[in-house]
Amino acid sequence: MDRREFLGGAAALAGATALPGIARAQGAELSFFYPVAVGGPITKLIDAYATGFEKDNAGVKVKPIYAGTYQETIVKALTAHKSGTPPVLSVLLSTDMFTLIDEEAIVPFDDFIKTDEDRKWLAGFYPGFMENSQTGGKTWGIPFQRSTVVLYWNKELFKEAGLDPEKPPKDWAEQVEFAQKLTKRDASGNVTQWGIQIPSSGFPYWLFQGLTTQAGAILANSAGDKTDYANPAVIEALQYWVDLSQKYKVHPPGIVEWGTTPRDFFEKKVAMMWTTTGNLTNVRANAKFPFGVGVLPAGKKPGSPTGGGNFYLSKKATRAEQEAAFKFVRWITTPERAAQWSIDTGYVGVTPASYETEAMKTYVAGFPQAIVARDQLSSAVAELSTHENQRVTKALNDGLQAALTGTKTPQKAMEEAQAEAERILKPYR
């Protein structure tokens, strides 16, 4: 998901310079939007890609624009589109696809697929990531920094609690049982260590989709014009999340912050956390204890949503700019670069071929946790995405937070969220 921060400072500006890969007239200056990952030395990574690409494309000058969170960036991207000066290339959420199409802000990549090599490249991405990249028979986004939700656990705390440090909970019941053993209270009854945290700020719907998928529900149809928030399985999933804090008292009450959850994990304030695989490098660098990474515990079935960002091409750019940006997208998603990006950030390699590279094989041999998110793709579903995506998602987020803070029952919260989504989406059917 990885939506908290953006690159900043001179190093970031230098690093971002090559991203659209414009090989137009000498001295051409073009702009693009780029959101940063949760953790890791992203500016240095982008800088290295910039240097490598610029060696092959002399005279490229690109002006990066940093515009806040992913949510803020889509607003600014659309504003720039309406004013006539959008960036040529943007990395925006895969879930922004319908919004960008509705606003006629982007062009499909299919127009630039000309050779057998191009066709082979396009067919080479994981199908799970293409679910949020294609619609109506066209490819509107190219997967770049993509993720799933995974479970992280502190092996030392598992051992202290009498649990096998190598075995995470395999289902919802075990998740509660383990969390009860991992929750610690002082003499006054105050919690000093929580069993589990599932963040509920920013974009709670994404973490919630792990629970709804496991409960056997799909939140929206593939056409992006209908939601199913009031499905009994969705309500069951929300009740389970609420019960973790209100019934079992193994999860902090109220809203758990996305941004501080990894820090709570590092400081041993929580023993298990759900977060993006995009946090993997961050956790590896900052956890001063052995940790495990596993697929999310199953409900009726296993499952997680995919997440993260795609490349999009501006409709208002010139054909030459679009061609050059396409060239860069091809360049940065080669198996070797996709593998290195995954190794350096924790994002999932976007193609099976990236896992066949020597670099990735070596990395995974020494750090097997890196393969979990890829293996989870077999049970992953598309991240919630609809027309009017911001408003439809907000309806769900508001409902989730109302239930988690105890102001509404899960059933009432989801029925009201569904009614609001229905009102927003009705014109699109």
UniProtKB/TrEMBL annotation:
* Organism the protein comes from: Bosea minatitlanensis
CDD domains, alphabetized: PBP2_UgpB
Q: Member of which family?
A: Belongs to the bacterial solute-binding protein 1 family.
Which residue ranges does the record annotate as region Disordered? 407-429
Q: Which PROSITE patterns match?
A: TAT
What Gene3D superfamilies does UniProt report for this protein, alphabetically? Periplasmic binding protein-like II
Recorded protein name is ABC transporter substrate-binding protein
Q: Which Pfam families match?
A: SBP_bac_8
Location of this chain's protein in the cell: Periplasm
Q: Which UniProt keywords apply?
A: Periplasm
The record lists the lineage as: Bacteria, Pseudomonadati, Pseudomonadota, Alphaproteobacteria, Hyphomicrobiales
Basic and acidic residues: bias regions: 420-429
